[in-house]
Design goal:
about 290 residues, mainly beta, Neuraminidase, four-stranded antiparallel beta sheet, globular, binds 2-acetamido-2-deoxy-beta-D-glucopyranose, Kelch-typ_b-propeller, Gal_Oxase/kelch_b-propeller
């Protein structure tokens, strides 16, 4: 007899659209590693996604800022990145981050550089942007992830600190320092309140590239595993109890599998990116999307 669990997606059903800095190098990656196919995405410019941050709003992929236009907000409709008339309130060229919040209804966009290292944040709800509370510390390339359902950032590329803080209704509150002076990692919130930090660069150690998979849980940082290679500047997406990490330096696509209570079970390589794509935009979709 065959038992199938309808609640958990199988890796073979997962497809991830990857939009790198050059849009014409986009591809569709299967979660089981069996296929990687070119995807055709249209955009106003080929470097449209370079240094852009991305997040889902109402189920749609949006990209924010980046060097091609630092105030842009663009939405992926069908296979086209359409620039919206609504703009970010502030220029965010690079080093900023975006995160889906409020069950995917809005995105929080924070940090970035435009002559200074911004601590500012704004919230986009699909049609308008409003400024919200700025962080206390800088978090250039510190990322954003959900910890206990609250936006959280860790470390900073420029000020090389190890400060973590989380945004509540009343403002940003301190969390325990990360053990390393880290940046250019990926942050991924798990369903049950903890947050993972993957890879990055350790400024306490001359910028050594990291392989660590760290978990912030019950206000404690613990290393729970390692990537198969050191990496930074990648992007990660969590779906069907697996995190897919698209590495920049190693170019490896790594899958971290978790059990039903979200304990890390295995780390495996499912493929390679076609090139060294820095902070690629990721979007979970269907098997024939834009190919
Ligand atoms: C806020 O940041 C400043 C440095 O910019 C630091 O001295 C201060 O302790 C921080 N406050 C908290 C609550 O972390
Ligand atoms: C998360 O916690 C809830 C409540 O304790 C539990 O019902 C659920 O199964 C947990 N989910 C995971 C993924 O651990």
């Amino acid at each position: 007899m065959l038992f199938l669990c309808p609640c958990i997606e199988q890796e073979s059903d997962v497809f991830i659209l990857v939009i790198p800095c050059y849009v014409d190098e986009s591809y569709l990656q299967s979660g089981d590693g069996s296929s990687q196919i070119s995807a055709t995405i249209n955009a106003p410019r080929n470097d449209y996604a370079e240094y852009a941050a991305h997040a889902l709003v109402n189920g749609k992929l949006h990209i924010f800022g980046g060097v091609s236009y630092s105030k842009k907000i663009a939405r992926l409709d069908d296979c086209t990145l359409n620039e919206l008339t609504v703009r970010l309130n502030e220029d965010r060229n690079y080093g900023h981050a975006a995160l889906s919040i409020e069950n995917g209804k809005k995105a929080l966009i924070c940090f970035g550089w435009n002559g200074d290292f911004r601590k500012t944040c704004e919230i986009f709800d699909g049609s308008t942007t409003v400024s919200t509370i700025a962080s206390n510390w800088t978090h250039h390339y510190g990322g954003l992830g959900l910890y206990k359902n609250q936006p959280t950032s860790v470390g900073c590329y420029d000020e090389e600190h190890q400060k973590a803080e989380t945004l509540s209704a009343s403002g940003w509150n301190s969390l325990p320092d990360h053990p390393k002076r880290i940046s250019e990692h990926s942050l991924v919130g798990l369903e049950n309140q903890s947050m993972l930090l993957i890879g990055g660069v350790d400024w306490g150690n001359d910028g050594v590239i990291q392989s660590g998979i760290w978990q912030l849980k019950d206000e404690n940082w613990n290393q729970i595993g390692d990537l198969l290679q050191t990496d930074y500047g990648g992007s990660a997406i969590y779906t069907g109890r697996s995190i897919y990490y698209f590495g920049y330096v190693s170019e490896a696509i790594t899958r971290l599998d978790f059990n039903e209570v979200e304990e890390l079970q295995s780390v495996s390589k499912i493929g390679n990116q076609p090139s060294d794509f820095y902070l690629p935009v990721l979007f979970q979709t269907v098997s024939n999307y834009c190919i």
